[in-house]
User: Fold these one by one.
Assistant:
Number 1:
Amino acid sequence: MHPFKIPFSRPYLSGNEYRYIEAAVQSGRISGGGPFGKRCEMLLSKLIGSSDVLLTSSCTSALEIAAFLLDALPGDEVILPSFTYVSTANAFVIRGMKPVFIDIHPDTLNLDERLLESLITSKTRAIVPVHYAGVACQMDEIGQISSKYKLTLIEDAAHALGGTFSGRPLGTFGAIGVYSFHETKNLSCGEGGAMVINEARLLERAEILREKGTNRTQFIQGLMHQYTWMDYGSSYALSDLQAAYLLAQLESFEEIQRKRAQIWNDYYQELRFLEQAGHLTLPKSIPQAFSSYHLFYVLLPNKEERDSLMHWLQSHGILAVFHYIPLHNSPMGSRYHDSIRDLPVTRSVSERILRLPFYTGLSRRDQSEVIERLYEYFQ
Ligand SMILES: Cc1ncc(COP(=O)(O)O)c(C=O)c1O
């Protein structure tokens, strides 16, 4: 049995997952680039409004392909938030690049675009904004700065499928946008990801990189009789077994998003009193952003209060957690970061953030219990 009555996250089944997996198994065609994968790519293209979408084995894989496409020289720099998942940095670090960590806004927890220009050097090649929780970064300013300095924009939209900025889907502003279908994401297939290529010249090479450095994708499309080694690459394709599962989820995207929006809004409305009373701070957005409703967090006044509330909830069977340990202070990140340059907002937020149970199938009863326990704690 699960040690927590109300888990932090739980995969959602939309109905057709088993049927589609069975069909994939029976077809005898379960490697990458198969028919279910094609259908997923078509649906994603429709959703994002962009024709060049590639499924990958994870968002990490998609980031690694994006980093390959930069053709960076050792020591070239990439600007990214320290308040993000390891892969946002590691994908570039394994290509010999140096991550330059930028601080975040205290309200949206997205990178603070006002600091960008001060971090750009002659070695800067790319900016990687992360749309935290599915709320857009300030894409107008970030886009202007990246054009001004001729930098490549790679959007980490791991949280953000379905989110928009000024009505335009997140992931479509940069040269490349990447998404995650990891177990905890809005849509999932265990481990999985996708990338949208918004610069057509990058597409063919991205397909080769994804297929172990071969032109297998063109072979599958019937464009050649055999395939061969063309370039660098790795095993970044999503198996058709997982694509079958993902297709069921994608077909239910609207329903999933509707449920998540409801749960998010219920938390927001019902916790407002605690914010007004000064106990905690609720998530903030910007007027141009429409959220993908990926996660729900609250900010406590300090680390002691955060830890104490987290343990209180856990002692009542409710798993609330925090993330991210700032990358710039991690054993690996500190090798790259000048310790004198403090990132005060990142440091403070990572000590004060608490993520509440949030998943598509969270029942009204369980959500009410989380909310009641929060009120009980502060009374
Ligand atoms: C912002 C961000 N980027 C990238 C990733 C990596 O995604 P994946 O687990 O699909 O490789 C994550 C994972 O949660 C993430 O939160």
Number 2:
Amino acid sequence: MFIGDVVGSPGREGLTATMPLLRAEHKPDLIIVNGENAAGGVGITEQTAEEIFAAGAQVITLGNHAYRQREAFGFLNADERVVRPLNHSPESPGRGWTIVEAGGMRVAVVNLSGAVQLQVDRNPFAAIDELLEEMDGRADAVFVDFHAEVTSEKVAMGWHLDGRVAAVCGTHTHVPTADPRILPGGTAHITDVGMTGSRDGVLGVKRAGALESLRTGLPVRFETAGEDVWVMGCLIEVRDDGLSTRIEQILLPTA
Ligand SMILES: [Fe+2]
Ligand SMILES: [Fe+2]
């Protein structure tokens, strides 16, 4: 089970409230949650990560907001259950991938950032190719959270990795796309799973601030929106050979 960007305390509370239901219904072997917006809407802290782990996550992925909370740098370095984009600078705190045991398999979880309209240190296509070579049999299945802005790059990454990884799931836009599918080579793909946050605002922030910023072009301090929180993500069925047979979207109101 993969859950998209948890936005602020409404997102964390929505996740905590909904996860018992999702776990009982689907009995996932592995739960991966994107937490790049967990702390007040930008970044993550040790405390907000603990809340996500307590809800059932085994691994937390991040994105372009990974280092917004400086206090979390030590935590990102220390905790192997948290991954930030692989193709950020090697000087950045934390790691780009990790391996967890789930369902009798060694599953590699990779966080990768798109290069179009986002700042990266390396081209994501080259970075993931190099990593897959470096892994060399250390994982039975590979999950990739591709945190990227534009749909073209996200669809392209699915094709690039088809037949080589279990899943390529997009995050970052906070808006779910209607294209979950198993590619011909056996890789589950979705352009974006969406977010875990309020649908009452704009991408999880209160609409008044977002509208003011877009109307005036002036800087505005965004506040996290709290109404109409949904959990968005997907469920993927992975075979023993590390490829996938099924991907299903999760789009669930929390109240
Ligand atoms: Fe996000
Ligand atoms: Fe992002």
